[in-house]
Amino acid sequence: MALIVQKYGGTSVGTVERIQAVAQRVKKTVEAGNCVVVVVSAMGKTTDGLVKLATEISPSPNRREMDMLLSTGEQVSIALLSMALQEAGQPAISLTGAQVGIITESHHTRARILKIETDRMERHLQRGEVVVVAGFQGVNSTEDWDITTLGRGGSDTSAVALAAALKADFCEIYTDVPGILTADPRLVEDAQLMSEITCDEMLELASLGAKVLHPRAVEIARNYGMPLVVRSSWTDDPGTWVRSPKRQPRPLEGLEIARPVDAVEFDTDQAKVALLRVPDHPGVAARLFGEIASQKLDVDLIIQSIHEGNSNDIAFTVVKNSLTRAEAVANAIIPALTAGHSISPELAPDVMIQQKIAKVTIAGAGMIGRPGVAAQMFSTLADAGINIQMISTSEVKVSCVVDEVDCDRAIATLCEAFEVSQSGMKTQDAIAPTAVAVRGVALDLKQARVAVRHIPDRPGMAAKIFQLLASHNISVDMIIQSQRCRMIDGVMTRDIAFTVAQMDAEGARQALEAARSDIGYGEVVVDSAIAKVSIVGSGMVGQPGIAARMFEALFKKEINIQMIATSEIKVSCVVAEDQGVMALQAIHAAFELAGTQRIQVSA
Ligand code: ADP
Ligand code: ASP
Ligand code: MG
Fold first, then answer.
1. CATH class for the domain made up of 3-175
2. Ligand 2 atom closest to the CA of 74, numbered from 1
């Protein structure tokens, strides 16, 4: 007999008939000899409707009241599903988050789960009842009992957290597609079903826009080693398993907030090549990395900064013994980039190399939605007087490129700051990467780009900026510092650009404007008309040419790349918003991800 947590999303419980169909599936699972806890979302688009009502009353509704309102949707579905189960002859009881004892932080509309009481659920299960729990909600404490919600799409997180707390055998997420696909089938019609995916890959995909799973649900599954499967509630097909490596047992106290970082890693076998002032038009990245790939040189990090005037900086790292060849490739393409243009020498493209660098990384699956973690890394390095040359972020890692001489100090101070007892060379996840380099592609149209110009070039500036944003609870992604320095009023300055969720963009701008004279940078520019397209796959590690193929696919569609950022298992490009869908389709095709079977979307 197994203990199973099943979660049904909005469309799966969108009508009375659907609720009855869900009741039948739950009943069948019980009859097969299992104990079942069910988590449900609000019916259909109920939550969207509630949000709309609130914004008709206030442009920025009070967050506590918002939670009071939004949590009502789930209360409707738990009651109806329990009735349907009882009607079908299956004993069941509905429980709100408060009744279960799902205790969260007090951050309304984006609360993280701290603790889940299991006694009451266990009592009902022992009596042979199905427990139907309202997803997406909890309470901030057993003194105030203020209702909190976990953030849109958060019922997935409720389900996996309940599964972890109950030590369930596995957690099933039922939705309106047959499982996890190579792309959103609503945007890419030949998207293909995967039978399995690693947690790390899914974490990236979910965070980069694949809303089939809430990223925090994947984070919990990874931390607690909880087997997770995504399936259609319309069929009996097996769906997609999300595979987690075996984990050390982890305390359930502080469920979503304990220990965000569990390793400090380093890599001193890297060297940096930067191309400065390359023209800002389609095809430059494709050409550069196409050449690099044809020489079989393996590139680790790539970043392309925002353009100042009409040119970009592109920087990348390669293993040390490839540096000479990478530098030669970079030098060789410069004449082609400027052919036909007369450019004054100080504005001409240039190649800059740095041999003695090190990449230091903090890793752990507890960083999503916690901007303070990256900020703490930057300030820890700043306090040690260590300058950060490049930053790369992923859902499970933040990496900084620093001077090689600073590497040992950086590691020591990071281990101390994050209470990690030992550091190590970069290791691969325990799950063997698949032969395919790219598992899936994702599009995020809800991001905005923020550029902060003319930041004094000294240690601690990134720390100040990201701490400021963290104190406003704003998470940043794709952080890119320009490679070039500019002298402004006798001070060397750099630009930093990053992406944030659109809903945080105005808050970020205001916070940065308010601190401008204090920190001493120039203008802050926000652009919301952007799209972020990404490729994800653990098989891209050590396979040259993957990024080049993505850039080439965009170039063929004449799509200009505005920003590039990579981590070990993903490459993301920012392009113009109106080219986002075309970009997604182009890269899906370029990596031959298309399936022959058309995927059924059930709603
Ligand atoms: P639910 O209400 O069941 O939680 P969601 O709407 O939150 O469902 O998530 C399911 C939707 O996620 C699908 O209908 C699909 O359009 C979208 N989606 C985006 N990316 C992917 C992907 N890679 N694989 C499957 N579905 C995806
Ligand atoms: N009903 C909530 C939402 O629409 C939670 C969920 O569906 O996961 O965001
Ligand atoms: Mg969902």
1. alpha beta
2. 1
